[in-house]
Amino acid sequence: MNDSKKILVVDDELSMREFLQILLEKEGYAAQTAANTTDALSILQQTPIDLVISDIKMPGGSGLSFLEQMRASGLQIPLILITAYASPEDAVRAMKGGAFDYITKPFNVGEIKEIIKNALNSGGGAPSQQSSVQLTMNGDGVSSFQGIIGQSPEMKRIFDLISRIAPTHANVLIQGESGTGKELVAQAIHNLSKAASHKFVPIVCNAIPESLFESEVFGHVKGAFTGALANKTGLFAEANHGTVFLDEVGELTPMIQTKLLRIIQEREFKPVGSNETIKANVRIISASNRDLEEEVMAKRFREDLFYRLAVVPLRVPPLRERKGDVPLLVNHFLKKYSTLFGKEITALSSYAMEVLMEYDFPGNVRELENIIERGVALENSNIILPESLTLAAHKRKKTHPTTEDDTANHNGYFAMGLDDAVACLEKKLITQALQQADGSKIKAAELLQTSFRSIRYKIKKYEIN
Ligand SMILES: Nc1ncnc2c1ncn2[C@@H]1O[C@H](COP(=O)(O)OP(=O)(O)OP(=O)(O)O)[C@@H](O)[C@H]1O
Ligand SMILES: [Mg+2]
């Protein structure tokens, strides 16, 4: 059985040491205990140990610094951290530091047994050792990580976090506005995890009505309800050993939240109408474009469930906070849609790019992709001009230099080249609008049917006063 496996328990509380020792020995493991991290380190140096379970808050040295000391002295033994005070900062530090898992007290006996088994099968516990961010550069200098395009410091931080947490078993909560790439991030974590050869099963929480949720997600047996004509394997069972991706997790109803919490704690579930329990051996990655902390505060989301799902919280920043990625993404989508539409569009005009750089992308990367897709479809030359860009805040009037009559040439616009001509005309129009609006930027923006942000930006850019 398990008798060859040695487990070291580190906790300052005697009752906890005794409790875990009894539990472990009952399971057939050999257990040793230490009351502080100094004793624990000296045991580790003298005895071969297969797994360490350590408390976090201890006088004389925390479990987190113990983890760091272990790794610093080259000990790659898997470590499970236990704490009574769940804080996302600690969890991230634990996972980044290479802990195998991180659990909060009070825990369930079934849960800890399962984690121990997984940890002992993991063959080592320092995922951070394996993680170096592999950025791929294609021929055009587009740098990406697992298909996620980006090179801004914000995205590099995310790539780094993904590669550190992927090999752990920790549940991850990905938050961010719509269209920021949360699903890509979830998929990347799965692809780099030990579960990569198993399934990644997305469940769009708000797409399944509450009455069907249980049977869709946990399965049912024949005859469980009218219409249950055969046994059905639920999505959780389908994802066994793999990853469940709970998309829009903030939309789960209170009843389903309670069910899910129980399954996570007990690590098993019963299909509807069945007495047989099935092991829920899945990693849960969730995503939400609502702020789940706020949902917790407003009592719309269970706090205990939140902490189970958000062992490692991760935030994908909106595109407007990482504008440096825009040109890279533009190139990528230009390639994609030029090929798709059989066109040879290789670039955006420099003014079109400027327009994009000042836009704030309420729909994030998804919106940028749509803009480029439409741009490629509309454009007849081999460079995308500003008028082929359809931005939400840029509803243009027909008072555009290119649509104006032949005075364009008389005004010397042709000689200026399109980008400069457009800039020149823009400056003129804004100045006129400002005059007409008695200097009010808001009114000028209205007159030109553009956004206040955009006017303010251009006034500064063209130094209009
Ligand atoms: N960094 C990126 N590189 C390449 N493509 C991206 C990137 N970010 C997002 N995309 C693309 O943008 C679209 C939206 O991404 P995704 O579905 O992952 O966003 P999301 O955050 O899950 O959005 P929602 O909250 O609306 O579900 C997808 O087509 C995706 O491929
Ligand atoms: Mg999504």
Terminal CA distance? 82 Å
Structural class: alpha/beta
As a percent range, the share of strand residues is 5-15%
- Overall geometry: elongated
Strand order of the largest sheet: 2-1-3-4-5
Total number of helical segments?
21
Query: How many strand elements?
Result: 17
Q: Could you name the ranges where pLDDT drops below 50 across 5 or more consecutive residues? A: 125-131, 394-407
Q: What is the percent of helical residues?
A: 40-55%
Gyration radius, rounded:
28 Å
> What is bound: which ligands?
adenosine-5'-triphosphate, magnesium ion
Question: Can you give me a brief rundown of this structure?
Answer:
This protein has 465 residues and is α/β, with parallel strands linked by helices. Helix 14 crosses helix 16 (364-378), helix 19 (418-436) crosses helix 20 (441-447) and helix 20 packs across helix 21 (452-461).
Describe this structure in words.
The chain has helices at 14-26, 37-46, 63-72, 88-96, 109-121, 127-130, 153-165, 182-191, 210-218, 235-238, 254-266, 292-297, 303-309, 326-341, 350-358, 364-378, 407-410, 413-416, 418-436, 441-447, 452-461; strands at 6-10, 30-34, 51-55, 79-83, 101-104, 136-137, 143-145, 148-149, 172-175, 200-204, 243-247, 268-269, 278-279, 283-288, 312-315, 347-348, 383-384. By secondary structure, it is an alpha/beta fold. Helix 14 (326-341) packs across helix 16 (364-378) and helix 20 (441-447) packs across helix 21 (452-461). The longest helix is centred in the C-terminal third of the chain and has 19 residues, at 418-436. It starts with 5 loop residues before the first strand and ends with a helix. The protein binds adenosine-5'-triphosphate and magnesium ion. Residues 148-150, 176, 178-184, 287, 289, 365-366, 369 line the site of adenosine-5'-triphosphate.
